[in-house]
Amino acid sequence: MPSASLFLSDIAAPWPAARVVNRIVSGLHWLRIAHAEQRRRARGRRELAQLDSHALRDIGLDRGEIDSYLAEAMGDAESTRRRIVDEALGRRHAL
Question: What angle do CA 30, 32, 38 make, to 5 degrees?
């Protein structure tokens, strides 16, 4: 019988209360992971926003592209910057 928990994957909980506690603990674990990811994104946004316009231009970004860049870097959006650079240099990109 499959278990809904990361912590008791091979052992079925003997009573419903244990299953409920197990699901709560598992949910808190995933909330912790999501919170850490959100903090990491905020830190990246803050670090890029602190750069002056010249530094951003040196790394190929405009101030309005910070969120777009972060979404691509974190895997939330299709990466287009690498494809554009590769096409400009005459390279083929892997799909």
Answer: 105
At how many degrees (to 10) do helices 16-50 and 66-73 cross? 140
> Which domain covers residue 50, as residue numbers?
16-88
Overall number of domains in the chain: 1
Q: What is the pLDDT of residues 60-88, one digit of tens each?
A: 888 988 888 888 888 888 877 766 555 65
Q: Which tokens go with 57?
A: 């231009």
Using the predicted structure, report yes or no on whether residue 35 has a pLDDT greater than 90.
yes
The number of angstroms, rounded, from the C-alpha of 30 to the middle of its chain's C-alpha atoms is 13
Which of the 8 DSSP states describes residue 1?
A: -
Sign for the pseudo-dihedral over CA of 27, 31, 34, 40: negative
- Does some domain include residue 9? no
Query: For residue 45, which amino acid is it?
Result: R
Q: Is the pLDDT of residue 95 over 60?
A: no
Is 94 or 61 the better-scoring residue by pLDDT? 61
